[in-house]
Description:
Layout: H1 3-29, H2 40-52, H3 56-60, H4 71-76, E1 84-92, E2 97-105, E3 115-126, E4 129-132
Antiparallel strand pairs: 1-2, 2-3, 3-4
Amino acid sequence: MGRKPAWMLAAVVAVIVLVAVVAAIVRATQPSADLDLSTPEGTVQTFLEATFAHDYERAAALLDPEGRCTLEDLERGYHDTSGTVALIETTTTDTGARVQVEITWTDGPFGIGGYSEPQTYRLTPDGDGWVILGVPWPLWSCGADL
């Protein structure tokens, strides 16, 4: 009698894992919606797409022109192009916005497993659109003389 609950628990766990795998596959294979560049979400999406495509001039145009990060910082950095990005949440105020995303890689370091990491982008209005403030992922430092 003690073995029946263990088998039931194993079956439930197996179903949950199967559902999670199917959800991950569906999410990874769905085409992304093109968001409006005049929104904070569209600005972040365009920045990440440009970065993944190594179109650093386009990505740099979305950075705060008064900030420390430049085209040269983007060109100098390492940019893994295999990630997928999911929008988590956007908070907009009169003075700025915060866009939270989760970036997922299916292959982890040394080809073992996958991993995700959350990233938050801070933006400020700029004319008809938005610009990204600070040192946004995938950059780790800006303005350094190397």
